[in-house]
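quick one before i forget lol
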Amino acid sequence: MIASTSDAASQRRHPSALVSRSDTFAHPSENLFAKLLTLYGHEWYYEPLEFPLAWDDQGRPTRGFRPDFYLPAQGLFVELTVLEQRLVTKKNRKIREFRELYPEFRLLVVYQRDFLELVAKHEIPFDSGRAA
């Protein structure tokens, strides 16, 4: 059974309410970024929502995007992208789809160059050897 147009539009508009309670981060850059947010007094949530990007014939999400951080005081999602440039294409496609499907949400993308400048400014050693 194919979802009606109104059902499909409704599903598109509602991100998953499953909040990630993980104390571990997928990449050391996320751990470091969380520490910097805390240092500057920002309240943050790690990967709090998953936004569907594609659905099957029954209207069930088949692919999604889960931004790394949410800063509620700013109403801002933050996605860290510290991948090598040659590996960024897939993530950029998800970011583009997210922005097209959910224009009402603000998203800041922090690329490798910007992140490395941030840690250098704080004189924090960082090994960017693992992908995020």
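fyi Residues 5-17+24-121 form a domain with the Endonuclease; Chain A fold (CATH 3.40.960).
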